[in-house]
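Following up on my earlier thread - several people asked me to post the actual chain instead of describing it. Fair enough. Here it is, all 142 residues.
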Amino acid sequence: MKFKKIIMLSLICLLFMNMQCDDDDVQTTPCGLEIVIDNTTYEEAESHPIESMNIEGDCININIAGSGCDASTWVMTLIDSGNIAESSPNQRYLKLSLYNNEACLAVFTKEESFDLTPLRVGGTNEVLLNIEGFEEPILYAY
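Reply from S.P.:
Thanks for posting it. Predicted structure:
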C-alpha cells in the first residue's frame, strides 16, 4: 500500500514538472493567410478594391466591401508578383483577389489578415508594398 502511494506521488510530481513553461518555449504563430508569390497568378488575377488596410507587426489587415448574401464564403487571396523594385526602400507589387460566388444584392464588408514575413527582402528592414486597388503604398517595417 505504501509503495502504491509513493508511485502515485512520483507520477503526480512528474506531471507537474512536465507542465512548466520555459521562456524558450514561447512560439509566435504567423497571422492569417499566406500570401501567394507567383508572377503568373499575379498577372492573371483580377484586383478587388480595398476599403482600408493597416499593418500590425508582421500582419496586414485588409478590409473590403462587396455584394453577397453574408460574406462567409468569400475567399480573399493576396498575390505578390515576385518582382522586387530595387529602390530605397525596396518595393513589391501585390493584388488582392476575391472569389465571391454569392448572388445576393446586399453589401457586406469582410476583413482578412495576411502574414507578411515571406515578403521580407534580405539586407534591409523595410519594404514598400504597392497593392493594386489601394491608392497609396504602405510601408512594411520589420
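The mean pLDDT is 87. That should answer part of your original question.
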